[in-house]
Amino acid sequence: MHIPDGYLSPSTCAAMYGVSTPFWYGALQRMKRTLHTQTTPLLAVFSALSFIVMMFNLPLPGGTTGHAVGVSIAAIVLGPAGAILSISMALVIQALLFGDGGITAIGANCFNMAIAGALVAYAAYRLIAGRAALTSRRRVIAAGVAGYLAINVSALLAAIEFGIQPMLFHDAAGAPLYAPYPLHIAIPAMMIGHLTIAGVAEMVLTAGVLAYLQKADPGLLEGTAPGAAPSGAESIDPGWRRTRPLWITLGVLLALTPVGIVAAGSAWGEWSPADFSNAASRRQIARASGSVAPPVAAPSGLRRLADFWTSPMPRYSAPFLRSPAFGYLLSAMAGTGVIILSCVLFSWMSGRTRARAATGS
Amino acid sequence: MSATAAVFELQQVRYRYQELTALDGIDLRIEQGSRNVLLGANGSGKSTLLRILDALYFPSSGSVRFHGRELTPKLFESDENAFDFRRRVGLVFQSPDVQLFNPTVFDEIAFGPLQLRWEREQILSRVNTVLDRFEIAHLRDRPPHRLSGGEKKRVAIASVLVLDPEVLLLDEPTAALDPRSESQIINLLASLGDGRRTVVIATHDLNLAVDIGDRCVLLERGRVAAEGDPREIVRDTELLGRVNLIHEHLHRHASGLVHSHPHRHPHEH
Amino acid sequence: MDERAHSRAGGDRKLMASRSARRASAFVEKSIHSLLETADYAARAERRAESRGLLQRLDPRSKLVGILLLIFAVVFSRALWPIALVFAAAVALALGSGIRLRAVAVSIWIPALLFTGAIALPSVFVVEHGGRSAAFLVSRSLTCATLSALLVFSTPWPALLKALRALRVPAIAVAMLGMTYRYLFSILDIARDMMESRRSRTVGALSGAEQRRIAAASAGVLLSRSVQLSREVHLAMLSRGYRGEAFTLEERRMRPRDWTSLALFAGFAALVTGFGR
Ligand SMILES: Nc1ncnc2c1ncn2[C@@H]1O[C@H](COP(=O)(O)OP(=O)(O)OP(=O)(O)O)[C@@H](O)[C@H]1O
Ligand SMILES: [Mg+2]
User: Fold this and answer.
1) Which helix (H) or strand (E) covers residue B24, if one does?
2) What are the pLDDT digits (tens) for C52-66?
3) Residue from B14, B16, B37, B47 to probe ligand 1 pocket by mutation (most atoms less than 8 Å from CB)
4) Closest ligand relative to B49 C-alpha
5) What is the ipTM of this complex?
6) Which residues pair with A59 in a beta bridge?
7) Measured between alpha carbons, how far is residue B194 from residues A75, A352, B1, B191 in Å?
8) CATH of the structural domain B6-233, one choice from 3.90.930.12, 3.40.605.10, 3.40.50.300, 3.30.360.10
9) What is the pTM of this model?
10) Beta-carbon separation of C240 and B112 below 8 A
C-alpha cells in the first residue's frame, strides 16, 4: 500500500502533508506530556520494530502469505499518538532509505496507514474490548477486528486518492497525468487484495500478538485498557483455538463483501517471492526454465508488487517462456491485470444491467 | 572520620523491582580516588547497585549520599543539579546495544557534551581529542552495528569519558570480549586510575578484580557478603564457592576415581 | 542461501520431502529471507555511499534539497520529454558518481518497471488515452525512484537523516529518526537470531494455525524485548545528561561548491518545470 512517487498529483501530495502535519504535532505534544524523557527512545525503538515486523511473511488461512503494517498492535500498546508517530517514522525511513513508497507521497502514506490506521484501530479496539479483563478473549477479538478494519480503511483511503486523480488531472489531450484509474476501478482493485489478504494479515498479527502479550507481558496492555476488569475470573485456555470467533467474524465480513466470492474461487499462487531463496523451488524453477539459474534474491519489485495489490499470481508459467525473469514479469503483470480487468468488466456489466433495467421499465 | 573524603555513602539501601528485592540493606562507602570492584554472581544486584550510584534508580528505602548530599528524585528536578551530577558521574552500561544509541560514533561521543549545552567549538575539539586518545578516529562516521565487540566497548567508554567525570562506573566492561580485546580494555582501564578518578567496576571476573581493583566488595543476593583487599578475597575459595563465583567440577581420573575440587575459571564464560 | 541449497535434499525423490519441509517452516524461511535481504541492501548502500564520486563529495543538505527539487519538477511536469530529460540527467549523475548502472537497474529499474508496469499496463486498454497515461505513470515513477536512489547510494544514511534539519524538520524528529535507523539493525539481529533458532528446532510439518501462532509469538517476543530495550536506552540517555530535549551539532557551513551545486540543481529543476508546463 506504499504509494510511490508519480502516482499522486503535487496538489494531492501537498494536501496530504497538510492534513498529516497537525496530527503529527498533536501526537508529539501528547507523547511528551505523558512520557516526558521516555518519548524519544520508546518511539524510536518501536518504529524500528514496526519496520522489522512489516517484513514478516505471515502465513494466512488458505496457504497464502501476507505482510502486516503493525499499526494496530502499536495503537493497542502505545495508544493512538504513539502509533501515529512510530509508524510514520517507519514509513519515512522506508521511503527515504529503502525506496519503499515515494518521498512526495510520504504525507499520503502516513495519513492512510499511520494516522487513519491508528485512529481506526484504536477506536475499534476500545469499543469492542470495553472493560473486559486484560486477559479476556474478547480483547483478542477486538484486536483482530481492529487490525482488519484499520488496514481496509487505509486501503480505501489510498484507493480514493488514486481514484480522484484522473478526474482532476489530465493533459491537454485528456490523458490522465497521474494514477489513471477512476474510483470505480481503483476502489475494487485496491480492496480485493486488502479485504482478503492484507487485512487478514494485519488481523492475524494483531490478534496473535495480543494473545501472546496476555500471557507473557500483560503489563504492556494496561495503557489502553482503563477500567479493565481484574483478571483471574476468566481462565486463559491455551493455544490458538480461542481465536476461532475471530475467524467467524472475518468470514461474515467477507461474505458480506461481493469480492469474497472472487477471493474464495481463486487459487493462490505457488510462486511467492520468497520461493527464490528456497533450494527445492529454485531447482524446480531452474529446470522449468531450461536450467538458467534464477536470481538468488527475488527482484524486490516482485515482492513489493505482491504487497501492493496483493494479487493472486498464476500457479505456473507457460513452458515456452525460456527466461525466468520474463516469466515472473509476465505472471506478475497478468495477476494485476486480471484484477483490474475483472473490475472493469464487473462495473461494465453492472452498468449494462442497470441501463437495461432503466430502458426496460 | 577517615582521612580521605567519601564520594558515595550508602546507608541501608534497599531496592525492589515490583515483588523482587534486588538490594537488601546495603551499607557502603566509596572513597575518593579509590578503585572498587563489585564482585558477584549473576543476579546478585551489581547492575542495580551501579544504577543506584548513578541516580537512575532511587532507593526504595535507605539513603545514598554523593559528597554528603542525598540523591533524591526531587534533587534531579532542577536542570542545574542534574547537569552537575551527570557531568561528574558517568556509567558505562553492560550492553553496547543500550549504551550506543546514536547513529554514528561521532554522534555518540558528542551526545553528552551536547546535552550539557557545551559550545559548538568546545564540543568539536573535545570530541576529536577523545577520538584520537582512544584510537577510534577512523571509526568516526561508522554506525554502531558495523563495529566489532572491542570497538564498541572502546566507543562506549569514550562516550562517557568525554565529559571527564570524576566518578566512572562500569558494568562488566570485559564481558563477551575475546582475550585480545579484553586485555586492551584492561590496559585502558588501568591507565585511567591516576589517583584522581574514582572507579567502580561491576564484574564476575576474578582476574579483573585483582588486576585493577584496590578494593573489592562481594555481593550476594543483594547484600554485601565481604569487603576488603581483592587479593585476599580472591584467595578465599570457600567464600567464593558459597557466592557461586567459582564452582566445583567433577573429574574422572585415569584410575577411575571420581572426585571434585573447587575450580576457578581464569576467564568469564 | 546457497549453502542451504546444497545441504537440502539432493535428488528428485527427496524433492517431495523437502517441499513439505519448506511448507513446515515457510514463515520462518521467508522471514529470514526478508531480513537478510534488508540487511544486505543496507550494507550495499552504506558501502557505496563511502566511495568517492561526484555526488558523494557534495554536502548532504544541498544534495537532499537539490534532488527533492528535481523530484518535484518531475511530478509537476505535464509533458513527457522533460521527464525523460531528468532521467537522462540522473543517469549521467550516477555515472559521474561511480554508481554502476547495473546496480541501479537491478535494485531500482527492474522493480519499478515490474511494479508500475503491471499497474499501468491495463490502462492502455481500459482508459481513454491510456497509452499516454501509462507512459506518464511509468516514466514519472521510474525517474523519481532513480533520483532517490542517487541520494541513498551517495550519502551515508545518518548524514541524510541529519540533512532533514535543512528542511526545517524539528530536531526531535531528526533525533528519533536517527535512533530508529540505529535500532533497526539491533532488532533485525534479534529477529534473525530468533528465526534461526526456531528453524533449528522445527522438525516435521506444522499446520497453518501452528505457523501463525509461531509468527505472532515471534512478533510478540520482539515487541516485549523492544519495549524493554527502550527502557534501558532511556536510562542510558538520562545517565548522559538527557533532559528530553534533542540537540544536533550544527553542521559546518555550506562551502561555495555546495551552494553552486544547489544552484545548479535548482536551475535545472526550474528549467524542467518551465518546459513541463
Ligand atoms: N528491570 C527489572 N525488572 C525486574 N527485575 C529485575 C530487573 N532488573 C533486574 N532484575 C532482577 O534483580 C536482580 C538483580 O539484578 P542485577 O541486574 O542487578 O544483577 P547483576 O548482578 O547485575 O547480574 P548480572 O551478572 O547477570 O548482570 C535479579 O534477580 C534480576 O532478575
Ligand atoms: Mg548486570
Assistant:
1) strand B20-31
2) 788 888 889 999 999
3) B47
4) 1
5) 0.87
6) A65
7) 52, 91, 24, 7
8) 3.40.50.300
9) 0.82
10) yes
